[in-house]
Amino acid sequence: MTEKLDDYNILDVLGSTGLNRQGGLINEEWLRQLEGDKGVKIYTEMKDNDPVIGAILYAIKTLVRQTQSSIQPTGESEKHVLYAEFVEQCLEDMTVSWPDFLAEILSMLPYGWAYFETLYKLRGGHSDDPRKNSIYRDGRIGWRKFGIRAQETLYEWEFSEEGQVLGMWQMAPPDYQITFIPIQKAILFRTETHKNNPEGRSILRNAYRSWFFCKRIQEIEAIGIERDLAGLPIMQVPLELLASNATSAQKAVVDDFRDMIQKIRRDEYEGVVIPSDTDIDGNPSGFKLSLLSAGGRRPIDVNEIVKRYESRVALSVLGEFVLLGMDGVGSFALSSNKTALFAQALGTYLQTIATAFNEQAIAPLMRLNGWKEAEYYPKIVFSDIETPDIQELAGALTGLAGAGILTPDDELEKWVRDFANLPAPDVATAQPSQDEEELAADLYAQEEVKEVPEVEEAPEETPEESEGPDEEGVEVDEEVKVADVTMNGAQVTSLLTIIQSVAEGMLPRESALNIIVTAFSVPEEKADSMLGEVGRSFKQTPAVEKVVEEEAIDG
After folding, report:
1. What residues have CB less than 8 Å from 482, skipping those under 6 apart?
2. Residue 234 forms beta bridges with which residues?
3. Would 245 be classed as within a structural domain?
4. Diameter of the chain by CA atoms?
5. Residue 210: how many other CB atoms lie within 10 Å
6. Mean per-residue pLDDT for 139-161?
7. Does one domain contain both 413 and 438?
8. Inside any domain, residue 135
């Protein structure tokens, strides 16, 4: 044992992950049939030939392709939004659509990993050169596409001294030249990162044993059916051909007949040619071909055995829901629970995909364009694969709101509308809410109708005695005026529109006060009380103010 070292740098790497590898070849698989290229071929056969596995993988691909994804800024500043818009443009400008790329990424599930080379381009407008062709012409670097580097073309991995993956050596047809693809120009998707194994772990690994036995039993069943239909062939030959002192020619005849009966099949080419069972003198020749048929039912129910293994295959990837109903049993609740669990598992894989894409695709792209501030980099986000039932959601929201845990607001309404694919609200035709009706009632209650005091007639005066205005006017005391008036329905609606515009940030509070005082003859103190605390810190551009003011006054 080496001595314990106390003198080390805190930045040094002292241990290793323990990944079992020889050079660039991974030796983590203890089952030899699933090592290296053999494992790739087995997993390819499993996903291409097995109906249960194929159905589950198809369900995964369909669910993932229809899942919504978006590029989200990580902050609210102008730079955050600018970076997010740029990445969104790059995704839309690729020669391979995002759903197709996502379907290629899912090849990591049966194989455990998927390696993509990142192909860049200069955004120089329309060009015959694919390295420059783009719908943008700002001269920045964008993505051309992400090219799959198939699992069966892996030659070996390149590792650093610390065990970090440096890249992949590829040997692919048609020229089978060995090419190195560095990790800096690639994206490595893995189902798991245990021991930093670049090959991850296939989701079909635990299904292999059940799949293997199911496959063999089905093959034996097919052979048995064929033999039952054709019968077991029996070939009788003369005894001297089987004697220990038989000549080589006689042994060759026996071998020919043995090969013949093993190849007897019931198909369009069926038929056999053998010597007659009697010679020319009518004596037995010793040659006779017969078919032995088995009667009765088999003591083993092969169908139940196959079902058991198929169920275990589906169970290993949480895909039992594809088997529900095949025997005429299975409740809706059971199906819902199993699909929900399956969707949660897929959601985890989508998070894994998003993490790898954010770190190995978005970050390098931003750095290539000269943007070094990693805190401003956007990220890709996936929505939920399985959305809850709208009726269940409505019941949950009603219960939460009734308990006072959740307060309905504009953001919640927007989310519900997006969730249920409902159109956006139209402010012009929107019906007043309960809160708005209560506010209108309060406005009516607060408006006191003040009668104008009667003015006593002044005694008749001659023109010479009159000191007031001309004969067409009547002088009224300055203290006598109309303080308030009753609002009609149109005025109340206009007032509510003004208050809503202030609350939504469309109209400054000061402009709203001026409108209410001027258009509705409401004292400034009462107008300020109507608005409350709404919009005290908001400022708006003069153009928007003028438009809203004109609309309110016209109303």
Report:
1. 450, 452, 521
2. 290
3. yes
4. 172
5. 19
6. 96
7. no
8. no
d(CA 278, CA 236): 13
Q: Are residues 444 and 530 in the same domain?
A: yes
Between vectors from CA 424 to CA 422 and to CA 429, what angle results, nearest 5°? 115
Same domain, 440 and 411: no
Instruction: Quickly list DSSP for 123-159.
Output: --SS-SSTTT--S--S--EEEEEEEEE-GGGEEEEEE
In three-state secondary structure terms, 117 is: strand
- Give the Cβ contact number of residue 117 at 10 Å: 17
Model pLDDT for residues 350-390, shown as the tens digit of each residue: 999 999 999 999 999 999 999 999 999 999 999 887 766 77
The per-residue pLDDT for 272 is 80
Choose between 80 and 4: higher pLDDT: 80
Query: Structural domain of residue 501, as residue ranges?
Result: 434-450+481-554
User: How many CB atoms are located within 10 Å of the residue 360 CB?
Assistant: 19
Amino acid 382: pLDDT: 93
Pairwise CA distance, residues 551 & 427, whole Å = 14
DSSP string, 305-333: HHHHHHHHHHHHTT-GGGGTTTTS---HH
Examine the domain organization and report whether 236 and 287 are in the same domain: yes
**Is 438 a domain residue?**
yes
The HSE-up count of residue 535 (CA atoms within 13 Å, CB side) is 22
Structure tokens at 56: 């589950």
Instruction: Please name which of 154, 149, 187, 183 lies closest in space to residue 166, comparing C-alpha atoms.
Output: 183
Q: Is residue 525 situated within a structural domain? A: yes
Helix spans in 469-541 (H): 489-503, 509-520, 524-531
